[in-house]
Amino acid sequence: MTATQNSIEQSFECGICHDYLTEVRETPCCHQLFCFTCIQQWLNQGGSCPQCKSTSLTENTLLKNVVLQRIVDNIELDCPYVLAGCSAKVPRCDLENHKQLCPYSTAKLADKQQQKLQKSIALLNQYTETAIPVSDNDLYDLAKALHEQYAYAEARKCFGKMKTKNSSLEIVILQAHIERDDGKYTDALRLYDQAYDMTTSPSQRIELLLAKK
């Protein structure tokens, strides 16, 4: 942000809460801008003008600034869930509505996670309750997905159907991660040691040693 942009942004801030102005009120004594609730609370506590200290300022003498309020309401802001992946730029007046509908909101992501878990468990049931042949690769992918969803008991069921669960380094490492994350440290250490003995790669061995800590 340039110095000019920064000064413009500051002109839209309340002189009390220093957030964007809401229900803009302007003081007739010094033309300072405040949120209505901020200046109302200030005056109700017996305060003079926060800027020029005029004692003649009252709630009734405050001036509305409709034009400035429109400008402030249409300032585009980042979605509050930008760190979760939302790239939307939202007018300030629409921000609350966007927060409720944003697919990256905490509630929406939790719903998606629950739906994903239900699908994974349904797939696991399909694998375990039918005679359909399933490859170890498919079972590994499902176990990995269940691990990411903290469904450790269900992930273990995938290993029970695998043919190469003790001979594949990738599968042994995943089993170790699951036991570690589920607090089964003795089993996790045993599996990490098994994986360590299965590889000669220095980088993989270092990763396994770090994973044990």
TrEMBL record:
One GO CC term, this protein: cytoplasm
Q: Which InterPro entries match?
A: TPR-like_helical_dom_sf, Znf_RING, Znf_RING/FYVE/PHD
One short Pfam name that applies is zf-RING_2
Molecular function (GO) terms for this protein are: zinc ion binding
Lineage top rank: taxon? Eukaryota
Keywords from the named record:
Metal-binding, Zinc, Zinc-finger
Segments forming domain RING-type: 14-53
- PANTHER family attached here? TNF RECEPTOR ASSOCIATED FACTOR, TNF RECEPTOR-ASSOCIATED FACTOR 4
Name-wise, this protein is: RING-type domain-containing protein
Gene source species: Rotaria sordida
